[in-house]
Design a protein that fits this description.
Blueprint lengths: L1 E3 L7 E5 L14 E4 H4 L4 H12 L7 E6 L5 H14 L4 E9 L2 H10 L4 E5 L11 E7 L8 H13 L2 E5 L10 E5 L2 E6 L3 H10 L2 H9 L4 E4 L5 H12 L7 E2 L20 H8 L6 E5 L6 E5 L2 E3 L1 H10 L13 E5 L5 H9 L2 E5 L7 H5 L5 E4 L3 E4 L7 H15 L3 H12 L1 E12 L1 H18 L3 E2 L2 E8 L2 E2 L6 E2 L4 E5 L4 E6 L7 E11 L9 H4 L1 H11 L1 H5 L6 E2 L1
Parallel strand pairs: 1-9, 4-5, 4-6, 5-10, 11-12, 11-13, 16-17, 16-18
Antiparallel strand pairs: 2-8, 3-7, 6-7, 9-10, 13-14, 14-15, 18-19, 20-27, 20-28, 21-22, 22-25, 23-24, 25-26, 26-27
Helix pairs in contact: 2-3, 2-5, 7-13, 10-11
Bound molecules: 1-O-phosphono-alpha-D-glucopyranose and zinc ion.
């Protein structure tokens, strides 16, 4: 199992850069650019150098490394291994073929007391030579690097004039092995077993297995991305779902041309099966790197904000959460459905900016157990990332315990808590200038809106969301424009931090209907008023040149 490569005292050398790459500003989820950009000479290496010069504990530390298998994954792993050895790491842990989901990476970082991890993924963006690639850094707690660390890395990229690497041939990582590269050890492990062990500690696999075997057929779409091998082992091998339950289960470099984003637009095949077909009782999909999830029932789409609320309300169905939750958190654009549940449970509910890193401090200090975002992200304190397959198992556990359908569970929930009608409208590939102008114009208008009418209600608050972290007292400003109405409705606007082409404008719409109101409207109809009002106020169609959003969730 342990092999030393012939050239075990590799030559270290320094590569001089003509000038630094000054465009390497990490967004919400690390540095995300086109694959072509990453293929430019020294581009990847420069960013990795900035990481190794900034991340605490590199000398003598352990780093976890892997990715979602997209085009560029294997090359980047080679480069990072060679640079890690040059920078004095003691050990790099990678996985067979470099396949490692984001939540599984978070688990490995925590389990091995690593200084952090580098995850190669552009998440739900398309892959391949014409798609996107990304480098994401996680810290020692297993979560996305803090804002201050990413800022320091960015500052380093601005002045970088050289990087360090060792001369070494590509190392095979297609099976479990251990190699020595000078003083660094490279360990290739099976990236799936540790994750499965963690899931077994949280859920009652027998209960789920017996439920799904009794006339409750399920379908899971891995969208040719990283969760395929994980889902095959868990759903088919361990929970005994029939072979073929996991669709598109082999991670492909270009995701087979599909866009690995589990929503109604990009996971349409699965959505049609559940919403229009009559075969399956439950459907789910995950994104490129396995941290997002979409949940569907027969003729029923579960809005991610509702999903967080349902998991919170039914958490005691899951063995790991049977004694209750410490608290919950949601990102600002996520609907207040979970707030209502938290209120009834008598636990705290925090509102954070968009991005998983903002949950880190709350999770680390034990103030929350569950958290989530409207963007198909849900997670708990078991790792420091959102976790797609965990959410799927959570749903299955609740359904198994309650022995009901997804649709029944949703109806029961709304009948008890009322319904937060919710939708997100994305305007993609808008010219950056138009998007910024639209945003800035609306921001300037906000103070004057307070007290004025908006649709059927009146504006009570209008601001740009800022967050004071209760743990480290850091203040994060400018996190999205909010217009809050007297009747509990709300509209928010943000510019995406993860898009790679032009700008993406996100419009979040929410309206609360109490449990004695009409709970079964089409959300777009229920929100129609808010949709047309924000359009005329912010001049969305006029300024984007788009009569309708590119994606409606
Ligand atoms: C998007 C989502 C956000 C999520 C992020 C990373 O960011 O909206 O909730 O944390 O991807 O998965 P955005 O493009 O909106 O900046
Ligand atoms: Zn993702």
């Amino acid at each position: 199992m342990s092999s030393s490569i012939a050239n075990s005292q590799p030559r270290e050398y320094v590569v001089k850069l003509g000038s630094p790459f000054t465009d390497q500003k990490p967004g919400t989820s690390g540095l995300r650019k086109s694959s072509k950009q990453f293929e430019k000479p020294h581009y990847l290496e420069s960013f990795v150098e900035a990481i190794f010069r900034t991340l605490p504990g590199v000398q003598g530390g352990t780093l976890v490394l892997g990715g979602d298998g997209r085009y560029g994954n294997r090359r980047a792993i080679d480069v990072i291994i060679r640079m890690g050895a040059a920078h004095g790491l003691r050990k790099i842990i990678t996985t067979i073929d470099g396949i490692l989901s984001t939540p599984a990476a978070s688990n490995l970082i925590r389990k091995h007391n690593a200084i952090g991890g580098i995850i190669l993924s552009a998440s739900h963006n398309s892959g391949g030579p014409d798609g996107d690639f990304g480098v994401k850094l996680n810290g020692a707690n297993g979560g996305p690097a803090s804002e201050s660390l990413t800022n320091r890395i960015y500052e380093k990229t601005q002045v970088l004039d050289e990087y360090k690497i060792i001369d070494y041939p590509s190392i095979p990582i297609d099976s479990v092995a251990k190699y020595s590269l000078g003083s660094m050890t490279l360990e290739v492990i099976d990236g799936i077993v540790d994750y499965i062990e963690l899931m077994q500690k949280i859920f009652d696999f027998d209960q789920i297995s017996s439920f799904i075997s009794k006339d409750f057929p399920i379908a899971f779409d891995a969208l040719n991305a990283v969760t395929g091998p994980y889902a095959k082992r868990i759903l088919e091998n361990m929970l005994h779902a029939p072979e073929g339950t996991v669709r598109n289960s082999v991670p492909l470099e270009d995701f087979g041309g599909c866009h690995p984003d589990p929503n109604l637009t990009y996971a349409k095949e699965l959505a049609d099966l559940l919403l229009e077909g009559n075969v399956y009782s439950f459907g789910a999909a995950c994104d490129g790197d396995g941290d997002r999830n979409m949940i569907l029932g027969k003729a029923c789409f579960v809005n991610p904000s509702d999903s967080l609320a349902v998991l919170t309300a039914n958490s005691t169905c899951v063995p790991a959460y049977s004694s209750g939750l410490a608290g919950v958190a949601r990102s600002m654009p996520t609907s207040a459905a979970v707030d209502v549940v938290a209120n009834e449970l008598g636990i705290s509910c925090f509102e954070t900016p968009t991005g998983w890193k903002f949950f880190g401090n709350l999770l680390d200090t034990g103030q929350i157990t569950l958290c989530g975002e409207e963007s198909f992200g849900t997670g708990s304190d078991h790792v420091r990332e959102k976790d797609g397959l965990w959410a799927v198992l959570f749903w299955l556990q609740i359904l198994a315990k309650k022995k009901c359908s997804v649709q029944d569970l949703m109806s029961q929930h709304w009948n008890h808590f009322g319904r937060h009608y919710y939708s997100r409208h994305d305007y993609e590939e808008v010219s950056s200038q138009s998007a910024y102008e639209l945003y800035e114009r609306l921001e300037v208008m906000l103070p004057s809106l307070i007290g004025s009418s908006f649709g059927k209600s009146v504006v009570t608050q209008a601001d740009n969301f800022s967050y004071l972290d209760p743990v480290d007292s850091s203040l994060t400003k400018g996190q999205g424009l909010r217009i809050l109405l007297e009747d509990g409705s709300r509209v928010a606007l943000r510019l995406s931090g993860t898009g790679t082409k032009g700008a993406t404008l996100r419009v979040y719409l929410e309206r609360f209907v109490a449990s004695n109101g009409d709970l079964h409207l089409d959300p777009q109809r229920a929100l129609f008023d808010l949709i047309s009002n924000i359009d005329s106020l912010a001049e969305i169609s006029k300024r984007t040149g788009m009569t309708r959003p590119s994606v409606i969730t």
